[in-house]
Amino acid sequence: MVLNANAENFESIALEVFRYQRDNNMLYREYCDALHINPDKVTSLRQIPFLPVSFFKSHKVTTGSNKSVGLIFESSGTTGETPSRHYVADAAIYESSLLSGFKQFYGDPSGYTILALLPSYLERQNASLVYMAKTLMAASGHADNGFYINEWEKLHSVLSRLEKSNQKVLLLGVTFALLDFAEAFPMQLSNTIVMETGGMKGRREELTRAEVQAILKKQFQLKEVHSEYGMTELLSQAYAKADGVFSCTNTMWVLVRDINDPLEVMGRGTGCINIVDLANVHSCSFIATDDIGNLAADGSFEVLGRMDHSALRGCSLMAV
Questions:
Q1: Residue ranges making up the domain that contains 267
Q2: What is the per-residue pLDDT across 293-311, written as a single tens digit (0 to 9) for each?
Q3: I want to staple 46 with a disulfide (CB 3.0 to 4.6 A). Which of 11, 87, 105, 265 is the partner?
């Protein structure tokens, strides 16, 4: 049911998922009770409580009596920091959500050769971004699909050959690696979508998304650079085809909350990003992230940065 969501039925499905998770997720139930939420009075998306994303670091966030886990997605974190862990009970839901969302924006993956430049993600286990790329590659089925860490000369050679054959390519990459590759091997890409996934991780001087995209456009002679918005705690994605303006797939909805009042949720404007992710039916579909964004009236959004001391602010709402 959740994978059949659309703009017309999204809210009714989300409210049904809220009641299911409130009754079958002990952590989320205690969180709702701590906020004195009467579930019978929750009748809109903006009234649903959003669980601070920091609880994925301190608790096992699961819904339902089935304790089996199909996958574990784990964030990288920084040295000494507890990573987030997302316990995925049903990998098929994630894969279906990912593929239907990709088709919504880009068409069938079989039309693309998929190249993934993901250093720092490939070197560790349980990275959701690596699993995402593997799923897209499996659906693509092209012989040239592949992962790259720092084999820039080989990547340049493969891209050049695919460009000459007019093969459509998706080059999915973490930001710092795309910048390094673009500066070392500038080239004209006419049949390639370059999609940055964020992530500097102290590897380079921090740049704004606009600055990153300006460099990539120049080095690859592109009109636009695409972006993907996802995280360890989500099973759905948002995509931006230009200028870092994201739109959600059918299983995802974005709201914003007031920076100083986390319970004040808005349908537009600037604030901290709250995400409804219906694909998270077996964990928690209502997540208050640490990202600050600007939400437009049409549901598109930009990510402006991250909230300082967000973990402390989130955990202060409740002690379980």
A1: 2-67+251-315
A2: 999 999 999 998 888 654 4
A3: 265
